[in-house]
Design brief:
Length: 290
């Protein structure tokens, strides 16, 4: 018996069966059951082909993401560098009038925003391709958080920041820039998702073998149904979409990946309309990793 392997109108090959015993030829019943087998084989072959095509498409997407974000970053870095240079010269030498100074400020701030988005895409591409590198050096978490708060305070007019710090040394083995990115992301989200201002509380403490950083805001909060999906790629809660607060849904995914690569964890508590608290735990230097 030779049966075509046909699935969704396409022939993927043929199934050939040969019986050695010439006295017992195949009958109708054999044909019917083998037809069923051929149908299943064809379906399995088609599924395998679809799976291979999907895998290939993912590789192409990741390559595109890596190339596009890298190629966008190079010219932007030069443009942003010159815009900042001009800003500094303008401050020193008062070259521009008020309107042009404002225009230059917009170029620099929108350029910085674009740079942030491109960096997120680059991180996403690094994670997808397994190239997110994490340095392993001692990092002083207290100093890092204090620095971040000091740098952020002058940029705020509607929000206040309270930093609660027990003063104990909190040394982590990890990547300073990446840990700064985690704290920065949580703080910027706390600001962004409190559109009417309010107080933001950062707390750094020691809990057993862990350092704990929490960032609490009194903003729009997160619907309960969204909490389990919050750290997945591109996820944005429906309340912030409805309020037209812009974002990509990449930041928390990257934060989660960075924290995991430091053998830490991140959790969130929130009540919609009342605010959110994000809590990051990181093993302290000398802590045993399980
Ligand atoms: P983005 O802010 O660019 O959308 P994130 O990955 O940083 O992306 O956050 C994912 C989603 O989590 C946000 O879209 C928002 O729905 C929710 N979220 C994060 N932080 C907060 C917060 N402090 N308050 C309320 N919602 C938040």
């Amino acid at each position: 018996m030779i049966l075509p392997l046909r699935a969704r109108g396409q022939i993927h090959g043929a199934l050939t069966l040969v019986r050695g015993d010439a006295r017992r030829p195949y009958d109708r019943h054999d044909l019917a059951s083998i037809e069923q087998l051929a149908e299943r084989c064809a379906l399995a072959l088609e599924n395998a082909e679809l799976y291979r095509a999907a895998q290939r498409a993912i590789v192409v997407r990741d390559q595109f993401l890596a190339i596009a974000s890298h190629e966008l970053k190079t010219p932007l870095t030069a443009m942003l560098g010159y815009a900042r240079l001009l800003q500094r010269r303008n401050q020193r030498e008062h070259l521009l009038g008020e309107r042009d100074t404002r225009a230059l400020k917009t170029i620099a701030s929108q350029g910085a925003r674009l740079e942030g988005l491109i960096n997120l895409l680059l991180d996403l591409s690094r994670i997808e391709t397994g190239h997110l590198e994490i340095a392993t050096a001692p990092v002083d978490l207290r100093a890092l958080v204090h620095r971040l708060v000091e740098d952020t305070l002058p940029t705020l007019d509607q929000h206040t920041i309270t930093l609660i710090d027990t003063g104990e040394p909190l040394i982590i083995i990890g990547d300073e820039l990446r840990l700064e990115q985690v704290a920065q992301n949580l703080l910027q989200n706390a600001i962004k998702y409190s559109p009417h201002g309010g107080s933001i509380t950062l707390n750094i403490a020691h809990d057993g073998a862990d350092a704990v950083l929490s960032v609490a805001d009194q903003g729009v909060g997160i619907p309960e149904a969204s909490l389990p999906q919050l750290f997945t790629r591109f996820y944005r809660a429906p309340n912030v979409e409805a309020m037209h607060i812009s974002g990509t849904g990449i930041g928390l995914y990257v934060v989660h990946q960075i924290v995991s690569r430091h053998h830490g964890s991140i959790e969130v508590e929130s009540s919609e309309g009342h605010g959110s608290t994000f809590r990051v735990r990181l093993p302290l230097r000398g802590a045993r990793l399980s």
